[in-house]
Amino acid sequence: MWEADVIGSTTWATGRACRAAECLQWSEEGILAVITAGAIHIVTPLVGYARDDAGDAAQAPHARAPWSITSIDAKRELARQPAVPEPADEEIAAATTPSTLGEAWHAAAWSPATVGPLHTCALAVINARRQLSMYVCESDARTGPYASVDVPYGRWADTRTGVARSLATQFSAVRWSPVSPQRHAWLAAGTRGGDVILWNAYAQPMHVVQCWRVPHAVCALSWCAWLPDGTVRLAVQTSEQMHVFSLRDDDEPLCESVGTCTLGLAQVSNLHWADTIVLRWATPSALVSWEVGAASPVSVPVTIGAHAAGSDARGTLRDDGRMYAYDGSLLATLPLKQRVWGYVRDPSGLIVTLSSADETASWRYMISPTLTLTLWLPQERWLPNASLPPIVAWRTWAYALERHADDSALWMPLHARLAQLEAQAEALCQRTTGVAAWSAAHREAQCLAWATHVAPSFAATHLGGAQRLCAWLGLAVRAAAWDAAMPGAYTQRLVRALEQGATSPDLSPAVVSYLQGAKARIDKPTNETTMETCPACDAPMPPTLAATAPCPAGHIFDRCVVTYAVIDGVRTWTCVGCARQAYVPACEVISKWLPAMTGCLACGNRWRHS
Ligand SMILES: [Zn+2]
Ligand SMILES: [Zn+2]
C-alpha cells in the first residue's frame, strides 16, 4: 500500500538522472534541486507561500501548477568554462577525461541555509568536465536567476604530475556539512584521484581548510549531524572501501580516521547516516548498515535491482518502486511502472519521486532518456516543523486543506500546541530570559501564526491567539537583545513599541507587566530628539508604529519591519512571506546586537533583495 496521492507531475527530456538517490535534494528552504545530466531544475512547491501568490480564489486549486520551476542553464555554464586542452596521448585521454557528450552536469548539493546571500542556500555543482563551482541567487530563490560563483581551488594537486594531476582536480562527489554549534560549515568534495577537500563555507572568499587522501577515487560523501562532543563525521566511499573520518568543530579542523571497511565489488547507492553512529547504503541485492568501528557491515537481502532511489526514517525505496523497511520487510509499492531514480521526503512530509519516462514507441530509432518528476501528498498529517521557515513548515497542511477540505479535527493538535506555547512563553516572563530562549518561542509562534494565512476561516478560529502571541514575543526578543550601546533613535522607537505593545487587547497581566518592565529598563532620558520627522517635508510624524507612516501633509512611507525606522531609501529587503520590508541601513546599525537578517521579524520567513 502506497499511502500518498499525486499532487502534480511533469516530464523533462533533459537526459538521465545524475546519480541514483542523489538526483533529488530538498534544501532547508523547501526548494528542490533535480539534477539531470542536461539541466538542474530548481522546483518550489507553491502552496504555503502567500496564497495570493498563486492567484485568487476564483482559480480552482487543481487548475494551477503546484510548483514554480527555474533551471540552471547548462549551455551558458559550459560556454563560460575554458576549453579543456586536448591531451596528446589518445589512450590517456580516454582514461582520464570523462565523456561529456551531450551532458552538462555530474552532481550537485545544497548548502545549509545561511551560506548564500541573505541566508539562503547555495548550490555546489560539479559539471560534466568534473569542475566544481557554486550557484547562488541574489533575488528570489524560487525564480532565480542563479549566478555562478567560483570555488577557489587550493594547492593539493601541485606536487602531482601528468595523469595523477588531472585526476586530482577532477571532482566526483560533493556534500556540505551541517552548521556546527560554533558556526562552522564545510563544503566537502572528493576527486577521482582520491583527494578529500574541505572549504570553509562562511569565509569570503571561500578557501580550502583541509585536504587528505584515500587510496582510491572518491565515489560518494555523506555527513552525519553534529555530535554532542563537538565533532562531526564524514563518510567517504571509494570504489573499494568505506572510510569514516571525524572532524572537530574548529577553524582548522583536524581529521581523524574512525573506521574503514571493505565494500567488495558491489555497486553502492544511497549512502546516508541513520544517526551519528550507523551508516547505511544499498547494493543491488541488499540493504547494508554498518555501525562505524564494527568489523564488518550487516546486510539484509532484498530483491535484485540496480540501485536504491532514496530513504526516509521508515525504509528505503528501490529502483523497482518497492519500499523496504531496514529489516528487509516490504512496506509499500509505488504505483509507477518505470524505474525510479530518486525518492525524497521533506521535513514537512511532502514526497517527491523522479522516475524514467522513456518512450516505448518501436518506430523510433533513438530513445533519449526522459524523466518524470512527481509530487506526492502523504495521507498521514505531519505537524508543522518549527525549524523550517513558516512558509515551508506548513506546506503539507496547506495541500491537505486544498485537496481534502479537512474538518476541524486537523486543527486540534495545533490548538493544543498553541495553548502549550502560550503557557511556556508566560513562564519565560517570570525569570531572566536570554535572547535565544525568546527567539525559539518566537519562531514557533511565527510558525503557528503563519497558519492563519493559509487556513480557511473556520480553522483560523482554532489558532486565534497565535498572531497576538507572535506580536508580543517579537517585542520580547527585541527587548532581550537591547543594549545600552544601541543608537538612541532605535531605542526610542523600541520604547514606543513596548509601550504600545503593552496596551494591546487580550494580553495576560503577566505579559503586560513584563512588557512594562522591559520598557522601564530600556527607557533612559537622552538628549536626542524624541520626535520623528517626515523625510519629505520635515513635519513631525504621529507616534504610531504601523506598517506605513503617514505625515500630516499626506506623505506616506513604509516602516522597517525589524527596526520600525521610516524607510526613505532604496536599500531594502522584502519578506517572501508577508511582503513587509526591512530597511537595510537601519538593520545594519543594530545587527551586532539583533541579527535580524536571518528572517522577517514579523512572520519568520526569508528575505529577498528588493
Ligand atoms: Zn511629509
Ligand atoms: Zn514577513
UniProtKB/TrEMBL annotation:
GO terms for biological process: transcription initiation at RNA polymerase III promoter. GO terms for cellular component: transcription factor TFIIIC complex. It comes from the Eukaryota. Residues 526-606 form the Transcription factor IIIC putative zinc-finger domain. GO terms for molecular function: histone acetyltransferase activity. This is Transcription factor IIIC putative zinc-finger domain-containing protein. It comes from Malassezia equina.
